[in-house]
Amino acid sequence: MAKGTIRYWAAAKAAAGTHEEPYDAATLADALAAAGGGRGDEFARVVGRSSFLIDGNPVGTRPHASVPLPENGVVEVLPPFAGG
Fold first, then answer.
1. What are the backbone dihedrals phi and psi of residue 81, each rounded to the nearest 5 degrees, phi first?
2. How do residues 9-56 score in pLDDT, each as one tens digit?
3. Using a CB cutoff of 8 Å and minimum separation of 24, what contacts does 54-62 make?
4. Which of 62, 63, 46 is nearest to 8 (CA)?
5. 3-class SS string, 18-66
6. Which of 14, 34, 52, 63 has the most C-beta neighbours closer than 10 Å?
């Protein structure tokens, strides 16, 4: 298990009700499951459509269960947004 920070942006921030929170998880999937507990359908919908960076590196299409989280890492949750 690693400890770090999850940061939410835009619609993810609104759905989470916070800008950031700690994680204590081995994988991205574990961290997202713990973060989603009790937050409801809107949080799950937004996170399900989001992109993720871990310490600035894109997760891409890798299965979240196969993405290990580093100690003192930062997970950025980036929902789709319009603009450029």
1. -145, 155
2. 999 999 999 999 999 999 999 999 999 988 999 999 999 999 999 999
3. 54/28, 59/28
4. 46
5. CCEEEEEECEHHHHHHHHHCCCCHHHHHHHHCCEEEECCEECCCCCHHH
6. 52
Domain membership of residue 23 as a residue range: 2-60+72-78
How does DSSP classify residue 70? Answer: P
Residue 34 has a CB neighbour count (10 Å cut-off) of 14
Is 30 within a domain?
Answer: yes
Q: 46: domain CATH number? A: 3.10.20.30
Count the domains in the chain. Answer: 1
Q: How many CA atoms lie within 13 A of 72 on its CB side?
A: 0
Q: Tell me the whole-structure pTM to 2 decimals.
A: 0.93
Does a structural domain hold residue 84? no
Is 66 within the bounds of a domain? no
- Pairing label, strands 57-58, 20-25: unpaired
